[in-house]
Amino acid sequence: MKECPKCGQKMSADAKFCSNCGQDVSDVSLNKDEQESIGYWRWIYRSWRYPMNSEGGAAPWYGIVTLLWEDALLFIGMAIAGSSFANAFFGIHLFGLFGAQVTNLVFDLIIILLLFQVVTILCSMVGHLFIFGTVKGFWHYVNRVTQASNCNTIVAVIAFICLLFTVNSGIISAGYNLFILFGSLFSLGSFVVALRGNPDDEPVMHDPFYGAVIYSAALAIAYALLFAFFRVIANF
To answer: Could you give phi then psi for residue 24, rounded to 5 degrees?
Structure first.
């Protein structure tokens, strides 16, 4: 927390102006315990308890690394499940016959999903910028969106475990359904963060409804362009 040197008002660590008297507090030091960085796993744990509370001590790489390992778990699990099905029903050992191709495909899918997530975050930033007129930076925003949807760390781990149980089609089906839940929760987190500002230094400039419309329109256009791009790449 910061404390205003003029009136003593306490406010969030990233506030730039006092919410009580308007004093510039951008150069005011934080309390000692809040200046210390937050460890990665502690950040994960806090995000489960308080998804919408922005952690000022989080390193800028926490969000993007979390998205990357979540995506990797999901697609590695799907590759293992798909290979087991091919072996069980068609007698084809995918990793034995096409090991390099399967590995490259999984890697490509991880990068594609991460790209869609980054594009979603950028569209969320556009909506947030319209509503509040300010964004604190790309990596800070990635952390906020990831933190808002960080229950996906649990979803990704459970989905991966389900996909490993290749002898039970019901459990595998649950894994694929969890994959859909994963995407839904990430989209929800991006949407909520676009509409939610910090009351200390992000006053509402435009109606959030129109920010939501802008976010949705930007997302539709961006996804259409990405799908068109991948179709062109696939034809080469």
So the answer is: -70, 115
